[in-house]
Structures are given as structure tokens and as C-alpha cells.
Amino acid sequence: MTLxxxxxxxxNRFIEAIQAGDLESxxxxxxxxxxxxxxxxxxAVDREASLxxxxxxxxxxxxxxxxxxxxxxxxxxxxxxxxxxxxxxxxPVLTLPAVLVCKVRxxxxxxxxxxxxSAPLAVWRAQAAAAA
Length: 132
Prior knowledge:
six-stranded mixed beta sheet; NTF2-like_dom_sf; 45% strand; SnoaL-like; alpha+beta; Nuclear Transport Factor 2, Chain: A; 6 strands; 132 residues; Nuclear transport factor 2 family protein
């Protein structure tokens, strides 16, 4: 069992790593058998696939910030509500409210479920394509 303080530290370390584009630290936060599920696809992917997505996101953005973070600890993980603000290298800014539900085992994220409305992401991608 992971203690509440350890879960909180993991949640903070995970978000800080994504903001910094530090994929090795993100990988360290993930359990080797992690499943990452998105409501927009309805499909769970493994650690390597998730890291590939995050790598592409980091490469296309000059800044990533998780603002208005609200964490709720669970006995086996946490729920985080936040607003992701990301600046595309072509200029447009993404503002994406989202929720993460993370299950933690052995001090790492073993399942991550991410919920968000995909409309702002589609607009941001179109703005970036037009600006490039």
C-alpha cells in the first residue's frame, strides 16, 4: 500500500515532469505495466505508447502548465482536476480543462484515465497548422 504523502508526491512529480518535458521522469512515475486510457479514444495504451504521445506533445510545445490543480487523494491513487495551458511552437495557446484518475501501486501510476472535451484540442491543432 502506498501512503497518502507518497501518492501526493508522485502526483506532483508526474505533473512537474510533463511540464518540464522530462520524459525519463514521466517514465519513472509510470508502473512498467501502466495502462493509459483516454475518453476521446476509449482505448488504453501501454507505457511506451503514452511516452511517445507525450514526446510529440513536448516537441510541439514551448510551454506546458497545469493550472488550477485540485487533487483528491484516494486509498489507491488520486483524482486531479486541472486546466492545461500549452503554447504551440507556432504560437496558439491551448486551454484544456481535464480530469485525471490515477490508480497507484508500488509507488507508481498503474492506471491513468484522462477525461477532457476534445473540441479545444481540435481548434488548437487547426490554429497551429494555419500559423505554421
